[in-house]
Write a structure and sequence with these properties.
single chain, mainly beta, 5-stranded antiparallel β-sheet, 3-stranded antiparallel β-sheet, 0% helix, globular
Length: 72
């Protein structure tokens, strides 16, 4: 597991990292879903993320205990 920091907020226990078809990086884990673009981390969800994947249409989908499957 990996720890990241963004403007003082620690993002701990990264469980999934994927690179989408536009070369953006997505991180999921105990502290939610984060997206890395242009040198900055952006938070999309505070829910525990257990899985991230990109479908054939280019959508990012996550699976979490609280929200089930969600599309971004």
């Amino acid at each position: 597991m990996t720890n990241l920091k963004n403007e003082g907020k620690s993002f701990e226990n990264v469980r999934m990292i994927i690179k989408d078809n536009q070369d953006n990086i997505w991180f999921g884990g105990d502290d939610g879903l984060w997206f890395y673009k242009d040198g900055k981390l952006h938070n999309y969800s505070q829910s525990f993320i257990s899985y991230i994947y990109q479908d054939k249409k280019g959508n990012i989908l996550t699976i979490s205990k609280d929200q089930g499957e969600k599309k971004y």
